Amino acid sequence: MDEQPIIAQKGPYSVRIDAGETVYWCRCGRSKKQPFCDGSHKVTGFQPVKYTSQVTITLKFCGCKHTGTSPLCDGTHRSL
Ligand code: FES
Ligand code: FES
User: Fold this and answer.
1) How many A from CA of 56 to the centre of ligand 2?
2) Residue 30 Cβ < 6 Å to ligand 1
3) How far, in Å, CA of 66 to CA of 15, rounded?
4) Confidence (pTM)
5) From ligand 2's centre to the CA of 26, what distance in Å?
6) pLDDT at residue number 2
7) Distance CA 63, CA 44 (A)
């Protein structure tokens, strides 16, 4: 099946996460808690992407769901 994710936003979400914090990035684009998973992928073939930071940092999480470097933005949104 060639399922495409929903574009939640055509640009990244800047989110600060703490050292040692684990987040689950929404891969499917259906979550109401972007950029993170809220369980809405259950009706799709997608699974969230687990990400743990070693440091406290603000990161740009992909909102378009087409990045090649998930869960972070790689600029692909500019060509959508
Ligand atoms: Fe998806 Fe930038 S927001 S690549
Ligand atoms: Fe999108 Fe879970 S809601 S991956």
Assistant:
1) 24
2) no
3) 18
4) 0.95
5) 4
6) 76
7) 17
